[in-house]
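Deliverable D5.2: sample structural annotation.
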Amino acid sequence: MTKKQITLGVLLIAVISFFGSCKKYLSVEHYFDDRQSEERIFKTRDYTEQWLGYCYSSLLNYNLEIGHRTYNLSNYSDDMFFNESGGANGLQYRQFKFGEYDYTWLRDSWTQSYDGIRQASIMIHSLKEGSTFTDKEVADYKAQARFIRAYLYWLLLRKYGPVPIMPDKGVNYDDAYANMSYPRNSYDEVATFISDEMALAAKDLPLKRDNRNVARPSRGAALATRAKALLFAASPLANGNAEMADFTDDAGRILISQQYNEEKWAKAAAAAKDVIDLNQYKLYIAAPKFKGTADYPATIFPPEHPEYSHRDFPEGWANVDPFESYRALFNGDLYAGENPEMIFTRGENQTDEAHGIISLARHQMPQVGGGYNCHGITLKQCDAYAMNDGTSFNRQAILQKYGANMFVQANEVNDFKPLMANVWKEFANREPRFYASVAYSGAFWTMSSAINNAADVTNKQIFYYRGENEGMINGDRWLPTGIGIMKYVNPKDNATSNGGKIFPKVEITIRYADILLMYAEALNELGGNYNIPTWDGGGSHAISRNIVEMKKAVGQIRIRAGVPDHDMSVYGSKEELRKKIKRERQIELLAENQRYYDLRRWKDAPVDEAEQIYGYNVMMTKDRAADFYTPIRVPLLQTTFSKKMYFWPIDWNELQKNKRMTQAPGWPSFD
């Protein structure tokens, strides 16, 4: 076995141990006839591990963050779509995007989260020093449980907004549900609770986990989640939002801050700086390849640039393959223990076809490779990717430049790499993240793991013209925009019965690039100077709108991606940099369950989520290929946005049981 295979095997053992095997212990309450039996459980190592495994299992299924639409719809915003049945002609997608869903949709995330919170709380207060465990082991176990509990509150806050914080002590969890009714806490109270709990957990979590325990949280995971909660609390949705004055608890208390407070941004920036200052993380870079294969092509270097072309990362890209540096983060080539950018992961658990990333990959892959060919991106997302010199994509300029010669000819292939012959030149000379993320019409799919009759199912150039194998058909295995997704797909992935397979992929829940962009975003919103304590109270951060710090954070992401950093005029303007950071997040974090929530916290959703969705004219056949690339409105994928879509509705059964619970604005309360 190779070193990577051994690492992968160890990771799988850890994941199965902590997330999978606990399923047979789901009815853990049968161990708890009285307090004495509860204490006995936490004096036994096996039972303690099983209990903790149950706590971890609450992060799966409906709390997966990168997964199949059955468990998670928040991966689909103005950037991505799915064309699976869910009813005839994409009914589920239409209902979701028009706000026609209700409390019955994905409602298990609420009960699953509070079940996990309950179990984690019991463990925190029941596990004692001495006996089976050393003091250090007890501290680590409790810190893991505390992390899980706070992380579940983070998932709840992001989806449902202000939620009830269960009392930490003095709760009889066996009491009647009616006697445990609690109102919503305010948004700020929940964010502060998450921040405080994650800081407390971080004190006893290690800086780094070994490969066997890579799916357990580290100190960085706790501090990164803390930073995310504080960033959301600082954002326009929760910071001085008069439009949410009707979001109240049962006593009429307004739950969303009505007064803008700039210091929230400073606290978010300081929290992100806490993660940076751990000095445990850096952006992953792959070395250039001067000879390549179909699966792993030779590096295509960005255009010559006097500042970046001859300097090594992070000052330049001379020692970077920008395409592979981005692609390998997601497609399974880079294992968890090898990824310096990964801060928190669920490992490979539930990345199978029914749940997570493997499911996404197969739904994105063409049918010839055993895929379902029904997940894609919008033209808006496709056009958001810059040119390889960092300038914005301009369709009209490209059409004027090439005129009647818009298709790559066989004798031009070397001038338009990585495009192949007959590809539309709008896709030429784009930034490397475009080629790692976008399956444009005419893209090359290697799918090379197939063994039997490999020529039939590997190394295929895929077009989306009507009448082609992957083009418009009756049914749902086609792409209404004519643009697919390449991100998460490994060049070896092949799901046919020809001996191929889809390779395991590690879910990256939180990564360093996100923290860097969060840091820059929070700094950019400041007008004053702040002194914010570090997470452990051992020092402080001097926080202000520091151009050097913002440029350092954003610049290394862009340089790793092979595009020049913004010039100083952008960093000098709060408004311009805000636009650039939003665009950078849209590109860098595609399909990572970020865009849906970003648009909401920025209060951009009423515009961006309500825009008409455009794509290419998929009605066109190959003999009218030029007409295929005419942007048109896609009737099947239209969308809207209303106020109620900021937060998810509370289950009617929950409202009936908990008389103090209030419904989110815009949703029926069933009074």
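Annotation notes: The CA atoms of residues 269 and 306 lie 32 Å apart. The longest strand covers residues 530-533.
The annotation will be released with the project's public dataset once the embargo ends.
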